[in-house]
Amino acid sequence: MALPKVHVNDKSPISENKHTKNPNIDMQQSTQPIAPTRKSLHQNIFGKLRPLPFQYHWTVWYDKHSDSTDYDNRLYVLHEDVADIATFYRVYNNYPWEKVRLRDTVHIFRKGVRPVWEDKENRKGGCWKFRVPKSKAQEFFHEIAILCMANEFQAVLEQEHDHVLGVSTSVRFNTHLISVWNKLGDNERSIKALERTILARLSPELRPTGTGSNAYFYKRHEENEGYQEAVQEAVQEAALKD
After folding, report:
1. What is the Cα–Cα distance from 170 to 52, expressed in whole angstroms?
2. Per the database entry, which stretches of residues form a coiled coil (predicted)?
3. How far apart, in whole angstroms, are the C-alpha atoms of residue 130 and residue 46?
4. What global pTM score does this model have?
């Protein structure tokens, strides 16, 4: 299987091993001659982050598919505090991804933000959604998650006062639906900037070849069926607690 390549900080891609078990070991340089500006994903990210933690802490969630909005029974935490790249790989490399069931979802979200539309941070936001073939889905999600947690996406949204809040992968019959969530669903500039950055940073073989429902699209949370009811219920629950 071809190893994933990732564009980070506008550098050209180089292969990296997504199954790295010890992220604290320096990456071995390729025996093939390469341009001095080319770095692997791990070399670049580790160089920026070691020994510092991620700028934001992250929580890994599991969302069991159900038509119910009772999140206490369908949404639970897999790992509460992913603070650095080593912790991420301890979680990622030991998770049985092949056992995620049809229509179930794994989310990686900023700590303190629940991966639901009605969370206060999400209510005015939306998602870039990518339909990814099963053969490429795990590599795609791995790259998206690393780029998200390393602030590669957030950096391009700072001037728009927007935020990338998390990423999700949901198992479908022939594909995975992989989403990148942002806070401001009505900010066209930040939405387009996020799209450009995702496509630029992804490995060339993982990039979607077109737009539309068969490739990728942006959808505001408020456009989803059930959004209004979910938000109203959340507001009522919050009022009862006050």
Report:
1. 31
2. none
3. 27
4. 0.79
